[in-house]
Amino acid sequence: MFKSQNLSFEYAPHDSNPPPLTLKNINISIQTGEFVAILGHNGSGKSTLARHLNALLTPTEGTLWVNGLDTKDPASTWGIRQSTGMVFQNPDNQIVATIVEEDVAFGAENLGVPPEEIRRRVDDSLAKVGMLAYASHQPHQLSGGQKQRIAIAGVLAMRPSCIVFDEPTAMLDPSGRKEVLSAAANLNKEGITIILITHFMEEAAVANRVLVMEDGEIILDGTPREVFSQVDKMQALGLGVPQPTALAHKLRQAGFNISPTILTIDEFMQDETVKKILKGQANANN
Amino acid sequence: MQIIETKNLTHIYNKGSVFEKIALDDINLSINAGEIVALIGHTGSGKSTLIQHFNGLLMPTLGDVFIAGDSTGDKTKLKSIRQKAGLVFQYPEHQLFEPTVYADVAFGPTKMGLGQDEIDTRTREALKLVGLTEDCFEKSPFELSGGQKRRAAIAGVLAMRPEVLILDEPAAGLDPRGKDEILSQIQKMHTELGITVILVSHSMDDAAKLAQRILVMERGRITIDGSPTEVFSQGEVLQAIGLDLPQISKLMNRLAQENPAIQKGVFSLDAAAAELLTLARKGAEK
Question: Which of A126, A135, B111, B146 is most deeply packed, by most CB within 10 A?
Fold first, then answer.
């Protein structure tokens, strides 16, 4: 789906005093159907990379291909933007219409999709994010989580093969976060590639691949288990790990043989050593 | 000494119209000087409505609010109340407007009509309290990072030397490092200045890190009022009203179901590890 070769990017290349590279020599390949979480501090280059994935930005050096199309080729831009949709952080900045279904139809209308087809796509997209009942509501009366789901439906109506989420839950309350995340996970099950930029380690843990960015480079790339089992490294980066992983790590440091790959509460509960501790049968260093 | 007291506080939006909504329903609350209190509840539970009563931005439909003994209904006291209770809104960095960080922080004291020396003293003191160094003073607020901007905005309120600092979602939308920075600064301000801090948050983890007392709001009422451990041991109640527990409390509550010797409601990583290690040690002694 995405492949980059020596992708570098700077924001002001013609400045006499250019700021340091925002992206440095990124080589990455993402397959169709993957669910990739990108972690990193503000300023690490996550959003800049995300904006390359649908040609909102193009590489200063190197190349990025989306489904085989070079993002630098202006003739490919519209095809790329149709195949890769974006959902941003602030739900209020993404709503353009005064009625939910009109908002969802906006992208598809601009692609020149025939009206009957738009009708079908809008209903279908709203159903997929569980918002069909709100089709004729006014967006400003919805909760943050609902607004984000409308934004997702708007992207879906363009029939993309990938959706990039740039911190979609940062401004939401816990129930809104759950709504948006489960919508993303469901779309992934239907084969849509999901790229999720997030600061919440628990959200990253549900992806099937995690990329960690620092200073414009990808410094870790692996399954959530591979990445989060490097507890000391993640903590040194100031990113942290899911809490059950952190607790397991502490107990391991105290000499208990608990699995280093625990990510969730359920996994913690099922660990053999944890079971022994609960029964009062565990010793350190066993 | 009570710094904030509400008596039968009720607030009704759009009273008498079809949109009438009871936002606060007979709230009796007292907060002592020097407390650090977290106010938790999901969107629409009344948190923001409540804090806007604390500095007289909203007036009770019924009942009274007293700040350091003065009723917010007393117009002659309103100015001093607003100076005593400093309110930092959500995303306060959107409200930075002066050309330099220094000028932005000096705005409040200037409007209070203080002398030039006093303005300078307070501005520097406030910037120092939030950990912004001299080299930031003459920068444009827009040159700062997200976390720094937010701290500059908080400094603007601190420069007015409030007795109560009310922060609405101070950590929302920041990356993990920015979040840690802001929360530890708040902690530090509380210790160093001895001021009362009221923190509104969706995040149980943030509340758990800072607060000595947690108030849970639901449908305009305060439904739980207690220490973090007391509140977090009531997992079912919180989840029934759509609130999440800190991950560690969730895990510890699950473990406590297996072994009642484990204390419910534990919320910090260190306390959780200590609890499990004690249990293991007791088992080994048997």
Answer: A126
Asked if the B2-244 domain carries CATH number 3.40.50.2300, the reply is no
Write the burial class of residue B1 (CB in 10 Å: 0-12 exposed, 13-18 middle, 19+ buried). exposed
Two tokens, residue B111: 């409007």
- A-chain CB neighbours of B177 within 8 Å are 41, 238
Which of B48, B175, B216 best tests the A interface by mutation, with the highest count of A CBs <10 A? B175
Placement of tokens 């947690």 in the chain: B214
Chain segment A137-183, per-residue pLDDT in tens: 998 888 888 899 999 999 999 999 999 999 998 888 888 888 899 99
CB contact under 8 A, B176 and A238: yes
CB pairs under 8 A between A and B: 99
User: Model's pTM, two decimal places?
Assistant: 0.83
Chain A residue at shortest CA distance from B180: A238
pLDDT tens-digit profile of A11-47?
876 666 666 778 999 999 999 999 999 999 888 899 8
CA distance A151 to A126: 10
